[in-house]
Design a protein that fits this description.
The structure is a single chain. The chain is α/β, with parallel strands linked by helices. 39% of the residues lie in helices and 19% in strands. It is built from 10 helices and 12 strands. A 6-stranded parallel beta sheet has the order 2-1-3-4-5-11, sandwiched between helices. A 6-stranded mixed beta sheet has the order 7-6-8-9-10-12, with helices on both faces. The longest helix is centred in the N-terminal third of the chain and has 16 residues.
Length: 346
């Protein structure tokens, strides 16, 4: 990376437009550990989902001495506005779960990465349907949010498609007003409407985000509604814990490894800095987590024991000779030099 490393160091900013939930933390851990394993300096910026604070941080990054930026969880339009000046300043950008477009315009040289939201939703919903009788259309309560969030919109599209085809029936839609406190908001909203549904009148609750799922399983368990099953998208350590405690309610979740997503997104940014030819978009494929397959020895750090291939990034943008050299050099350096941690910028 002769051009990027002209000053002797490669500095990366990771700007996260979200609150620091467990999946977000996994993404950050993957990107930071991979960046530092190549000898990069990596700084983390949290906006807490506050758009104005995110804009302010982006302006600071645009005028700082960064070579690359990873931007995650940005909404359409808004993301284009804040990323365009950064790209114009010469900083390479890779995004995750972000739509950096405005009026059909994209940013030249920017690479986007996504969980495959359509496949995630389809896998989760097809699993829900598989638990129903062949001659029965499952009646589903859906929990989502009216916020303009890309991954929720994409997953909702699949749900609506199956409704329109008559494969599932939506008997209630709970639209939460935002993404603040998703656990308690989902639990309270579902608990409020459950008395409307006598046993046999609803078959399942479907949530497109696991942060809603933990609240939903709490509401179902508290009401003693094991007749209504829960299906979701996403997985975390706390989700595994809840699925183990309520295996007769929370039956399955479709998920991708967000730590691996962070790792691979950092590799793609490194490849962009090195001038490697890259496709504009990369998707992470989902896997299905069944509650029946879990046990109390399974957790996120050893999930591959249950799901072969989970967390395996072999072959994903790791084949460049210069990347091998960077890893080797960084490993050698860390063996002889003390690690000095610096506080991330506010």
């Amino acid at each position: 990376m002769p051009a990027a490393a002209a000053d002797g160091i490669i500095k990366i900013a990771v700007l996260v437009n979200s609150t620091p939930g467990e999946n977000v933390q996994q993404f950050i851990e993957g990107s930071v550990s991979e960046g530092r394993s190549m000898g990069f300096t990596v700084d983390i910026f949290f906006s807490g989902g506050d758009e104005e604070r995110c804009r302010e941080m982006a302006r600071g990054i645009a005028h700082a001495d960064y070579d690359g930026l990873i931007f995650s969880y940005g909404n359409a339009g808004f993301s284009y506005d804040i990323l365009r000046p950064i790209a114009d300043s010469g900083i390479k950008i890779v995004t995750f779960e972000t739509l950096p477009y405005r009026d059909g315009r994209s940013i030249h040289g920017l690479v986007t990465t996504f969980q495959d939201d359509y496949s995630l939703a389809r896998l989760s919903l097809e699993t829900l349907v598989s638990y129903s009788r062949p001659d029965h259309v499952p009646r589903v309560i859906r929990i989502s949010s009216d916020s303009d969030v890309i991954f929720l919109d994409r997953r909702a599209w699949v749900f609506n498609e199956l409704v329109n085809k008559g494969i599932i029936e939506e008997v209630a839609l709970i639209l939460l007003p935002g993404l603040e406190n998703p656990y308690s908001a989902a639990q309270e909203a579902l608990a409020e409407i459950l008395p409307r549904f006598l046993p046999g009148s609803a078959d399942a609750v479907w949530v497109p985000w696991n942060e809603f799922a933990r609240g939903a399983v709490g509401a179902l368990a508290s009401a003693g509604r094991e007749d209504i099953k829960l299906f979701s998208v996403g997985i975390s350590g706390e989700d595994i814990h809840q699925m183990l405690h309520y295996p007769d309610i929370w039956l399955a979740s479709a998920a991708t490894d967000t730590r691996l997503a962070g790792t691979v997104t950092m590799r793609i940014l490194a490849a962009a800095l090195a001038g490697e030819p890259l496709e504009e978009t990369f998707y992470f494929s989902p896997q299905l987590v069944n509650a029946a397959d879990l046990n109390f020895g399974v957790h996120i750090s050893n999930f591959s024991v249950m799901l072969p291939g989970w967390g395996d990034g072999t072959g994903l943008f790791d084949h460049y000779p210069w990347m091998v050299e960077l890893h080797t050099a960084a490993e050698r350096y860390l063996r002889i030099a003390p690690v000095v941690e610096t506080a991330a910028a506010p």
